[in-house]
Each structure stands twice: as structure tokens, then as C-alpha cells.
Design brief:
Layout: H1 3-10, E1 27-31, E2 34-37, E3 42-45, H2 48-51, H3 60-72, H4 84-96, E4 101-107, H5 110-127, E5 135-139, H6 148-151, E6 172-174, H7 187-200, E7 204-209, E8 213-214, E9 220-221, H8 224-237, E10 240-244, E11 268-271, E12 283-288, H9 289-297, H10 313-327, H11 331-346, E13 355-361, E14 364-369, H12 375-384, E15 387-388, E16 395-398, H13 406-421
Parallel strand pairs: 3-15, 5-6, 5-7, 7-10, 10-11
Antiparallel strand pairs: 1-2, 2-3, 4-12, 8-9, 11-12, 13-14, 14-16
Helix pairs in contact: 3-10, 4-10, 5-9, 7-8, 11-13
């Protein structure tokens, strides 16, 4: 049986039907920003493998660091043991995240990092003798992950998880901020959130948000002032603020973390995806000493979570190396370069009747269509044009590796214009 046949008959891909018969493309190798298929075709990767491969593929320093760590140990349990990669990574994270965040919990994926954040908030309020504060406020069009707790704070109507809404905890949702990035936030813009907090503060553990950029729920960029005012409201009503930076962390929006656009410090911060440069799966949830101490002082006196592969040494090594690589470059100027290339390259899409809007922020370029795209047809068209772009719904978007050069970026955006012109 051929590789393709085994894949189609036995492997379930994300958000796909098991027996759909839709083609998947066999990747033989990857270097820099290019994926080489088994038939020899090369594709410029416009997705950074779901936004995480910021340094490109087969990065020599990343490879060398992992090979060196492999000679020492690939894994050791984190219960009762520790190791140098976790300690050095923690030092690095504390140096680059908001100062108030001093306690770090490692996990395996972004979804789990958010799940951990929600559990932290619940345990905090239980330790404070406020067990009634057990619900969460979230924004419409939000996406926070695929596990059950995280699904409950994704949009229950338009989100990917509406099928499960009757099986999830009932959370409180407010309208998506309509004040755009770069604009002010009016009293009318923030009113729905303020009303939700006023009405439900006694039962709410936390407000959870994707700062500045709502990712898989719609690729929407909203006002930094909205985030500032949300922080103030959380303080006024005694509700924790969880910021989900899984997609936005490590430079993607032009700031190292998107919350920096608003100069806001959350009570709990979730990071993942680009954390390891796409080499290994790793995520982290950071919180304040105030919250971690409260959990320690409450019952049962420990935080109730512990993944088997928590703080895996290889993954921690990848993360530390990736962060050092990023910080060693003029990454802000590089993101501005990519932003300018995306803006210029995608601008012709604005003239297309089938396009509703084009928006760009940092190394994120979005073309919102008026109607959902045909995934199978449009993916094949992009492959024929020598690029890898994976749209969803009405959104055709680009999040390329940070190492993409101007020529490849121009080729990538030109392919988007060409394909969408024929839609």
C-alpha cells in the first residue's frame, strides 16, 4: 500500500473527515521557508506551520542545540526533579515577560496552557473562599483551544466547537470589540464588557482574551485602548485577567508580546506556538506570586495539574535557543519589513469584488472574503502557484516565517492575488 493510501485510509488530519478522499501533500523535507514535496515541488510556506516556525526549517543553531541536549537526556520527569534547560528557560521568560509574572508552569500545548490558566483562576478563588467565582467571561469570535474547558470560552455560535455547546460549562460572552487597532475605544465600545462584569463579577473567576489579535476566530485586530480599559474593569470588579498569547507571542504583532501594545500586565499569561520556534511542542502559563502563593496556601496546598512531558528538556532547549535567536536580531525592524511587504503585496486584493477587506498587522496579513472559500480547490490552486497557504472560512491569511526574504514574500503575496482573482 502506498504512503498516500495509508494516509487517506488510516490517518485522521485536523478538522477533516476520516474518509473524505481530499488530497494531502507529502512533505519530503523542509529548509528555510521552503517545503519540498515528495514529487520534488517546492512551496514557499506562508503559514509558518500554523504560526510557530519563526526561524524557518532546519535552522542550524536550533539543530545543534537539540543535538547537544540529546546527548545528555531527551526527557526526565519533572515531578521531584529539575534540569538546566528548564531553569535557564524560566530565567529567560521572566526577563522578557511583564515583571509581575514570576511563577511559570510548563505544559505540552497551547490548549493545555489555557486549560491550566483557567484551573489556576478557579483554584485561586477557591483558596480565597470564593468558590462561587467559577465562570469565565470571553469575547465573541474568540478561539482559545480544543480541549473541553478551552472550548467553553471559544465563540459558542460561530466558533469551531458549536457542536459541543450543550456539553460545555456555560460561560458569559460579550460582543467582539469593533474598535479597530490604531483607533480609540469609545464608551459604547467597552459598554458590553462593563455590563457583563457589573452583572456577573460575583460569579466570574476571570476574563479571558486574545490581546489585540483574535486569531482562529476571525483574524480581527482590535484597539489597544480596549485592552487597557478591560484591564481597568477587571481591577474594579475583582475579576482576574487571563491573556492568551499563544498565537501573538514572540514578535508576531510587532511587539514581543501583544499586550505590550497596551502596556497591560495580565494576572495570568499563556504562551506557546512560536515559543520553541516550531521544533517541539511546549507551552507555558505564567502568573503572579500573589496568585501562586494563594494557591499554595489554600486546599489542597498544591496546584492540581502535572503533564507527563512537562518541561521536557529537549523542548526547553528548543525554546531557549529560539528566544535567544530572536532577541539577537533586529527583530522589530524585520517585522516592520514583513508588514510593509504584506501590505504592499496584498493591496491589489482590495480591488476584487469578492474581497470584503484586507488588513495587516506585524507579520500577519489577512484577506477576508465575502463568502467562504472552497478549501480543497483553493489549497490546490496555491500549491500550483508554488506556495503553501491554508485558509479557513472566509479568511485567506499569511503568517510567514520571520526569515522570509523580500523576493519570497513578494512571490507569496502575488500568489494570493493571482489565486483570489480567479475565485
Amino acid at each position: 500500500m502506498s504512503n498516500q493510501a495509508i494516509d487517506q485510509q488510516h490517518i485522521w488530519h485536523p478538522y477533516s473527515a476520516m474518509h473524505s478522499g481530499q488530497p494531502v501533500y507529502m512533505v519530503e523535507s523542509a529548509h528555510g521557508v521552503r517545503l519540498t514535496l515528495d514529487d520534488g515541488r517546492e512551496l514557499i510556506d506562508g503559514m509558518a506551520s500554523w504560526w510557530c516556525v519563526i526561524h524557518g526549517y532546519n535552522q542550524p543553531q536550533m539543530n545543534a542545540a537539540l543535538q547537544a541536549q540529546l546527548q545528555k537526556m531527551s526527557h526526565v520527569m519533572f515531578g521531584g526533579l529539575t534540569h538546566e534547560p528548564a531553569i535557564r528557560l524560566t530565567e529567560q521568560l521572566l526577563a522578557i515577560t511583564p515583571t509581575a509574572l514570576q511563577s511559570v508552569f510548563y505544559s505540552d500545548s497551547g490548549s493545555v496552557a489555557v486549560e491550566v490558566a483557567m484551573k489556576m483562576a478557579l483554584q485561586y478563588w477557591q483558596a480565597k473562599a470564593r468558590p462561587g467565582k467559577h465562570r469565565f467571561i470571553a469575547l465573541r469570535s474568540a478561539y482559545h483551544g480544543d480541549t473541553f474547558a478551552t472550548m467553553s470560552v471559544c465563540d459558542p455560535v460561530t466558533g469551531m466547537h458549536s457542536l459541543f455547546k450543550d456539553n460545555l460549562p456555560l460561560q458569559i460572552f460579550v460582543e467582539q470589540p469593533r474598535c479597530r487597532f490604531g483607533a480609540t475605544c469609545s464608551d459604547a465600545d467597552i459598554a458590553p464588557l462593563e455590563e457583563a462584569l457589573r452583572a456577573h463579577a460575583d460569579e466570574c473567576a476571570a476574563l479571558i482574551m486574545e490581546p489585540i489579535v483574535q486569531g482562529a476566530g476571525g483574524m480581527w485586530f482590535y484597539s489597544a485602548e480596549y485592552l487597557q480599559r478591560a484591564r481597568q474593569l477587571c481591577e474594579r470588579y475583582g475579576v482576574l485577567l487571563i491573556l492568551d498569547e499563544i498565537a501573538t507571542g514572540f514578535g508576531r504583532t510587532g511587539k514581543l508580546f501583544a499586550c505590550e501594545h497596551a502596556d497591560v500586565t495580565p494576572d495570568i499569561l499563556c504562551i506557546g506556538k512560536s515559543l520553541t520556534g516550531g521544533y517541539m511542542t511546549l507551552a507555558a502559563t505564567l502568573t503572579t506570586e500573589h496568585i501562586s502563593q494563594a494557591i499554595d496556601d489554600g486546599e489542597p496546598g498544591v496546584f492540581m495539574h502535572g503533564p507527563t512531558f512537562m518541561a521536557n528538556p529537549l523542548a526547553c532547549t528548543a525554546a531557549l535557543t529560539s528566544i535567544r535567536l530572536l532577541l539577537a536580531t533586529d527583530w522589530q525592524e524585520n517585522i516592520r519589513r514583513i508588514e510593509a511587504g504584506l501590505a504592499q503585496g496584498l493591496a491589489p486584493c482590495r480591488k476584487l469584488d469578492q474581497v470584503a477587506e484586507v488588513r495587516v498587522l506585524g507579520a500577519i496579513g489577512v484577506v477576508e472574503m465575502k463568502q467562504p472559500v472552497n478549501m480543497q480547490a483553493i489549497t490546490a490552486a496555491f500549491v500550483e502557484n508554488g506556495v503553501w497557504v491554508r485558509p479557513f472560512g472566509k479568511l485567506v491569511y499569511l503568517m510567514p516565517p520571520f526569515v522570509i526574504n523580500d523576493d519570497d514574500l513578494a512571490t507569496l503575496t502575488a500568489a494570493v492575488v493571482s489565486v483570489l482573482t480567479r475565485q
